[in-house]
Amino acid sequence: MATTSDIRNGLCIKLNNDLYTIVEFQHVKPGRGSAFVRTKIKSLTTGKVLEHTFPAGHKLEDIRVERRKYQFLYKDENGYNFMNTETFEQVNLPETLINAPQFLKEGDEVEITFHAEEEMPLTCELPNSVVLEVTYTEPGVKGDTATNALKPATVETGAEVRVPLFINQGDKIKVNTTTGEYMERAK
Asked: Which of 14, 47, 88, 136 is the most exposed, fewest CB within 10 Å of its CB?
């Protein structure tokens, strides 16, 4: 059992028969009344983000989770297949557990979070950014760079990303996996 003083980002708890992870938290001590902890929690089963307030000293049922490195192998009709880089065991995950499946390519390293007691996969997270090759985009017009204009580009995984006009087909770009936005041209 944990208390509100143990709350930190990434802590996994069981609340109302669902599993949640703490996304954000703030300890509040108002001038009058007792202290409390205001949190944003994300459901590990549905992905919904909720705001929840815990009174100070409230007991929380924390769950033990393990984060393991896996490598993406391939996608088939059953879902996405990953291999543990240490034990070589394979696991199949549905698309709903992956935070950005549109940027996943073969050989990518991901981190899968497992419920330790039940050995059940909870989430699959890609790195914060990935390097992808542009497979198709309209050519940029010379001299058309006065503004921060963006054009659509298709990357090697099939996802569409808005990129600056100077990006051409065959260029490698760095993409933010949480927002899906272009970051920079890869070196």
From this structure: 88
Q: What is the CATH number of the domain that holds 34?
A: 2.30.30.30
Query: pTM here?
Result: 0.76
> Mean pLDDT throughout 94-115?
89
Q: Are residues 120 and 156 in the same domain?
A: no
Average confidence score pLDDT of the chain: 88
Number of domains within the chain: 3
Q: Give yes or no for a contact between 27 and 35, defined as CB atoms under 8 angstroms apart.
A: yes
Residue 93 belongs to domain spanning: 65-125
Using the Cα atoms of residue 116, residue 119, residue 125 and residue 126 in order, give the sign of their dihedral: positive
On whether the CB atoms of residues 167 and 140 are closer than 8 A, the answer is yes
Backbone angles phi, psi at 95, to 5 degrees: -60, -30
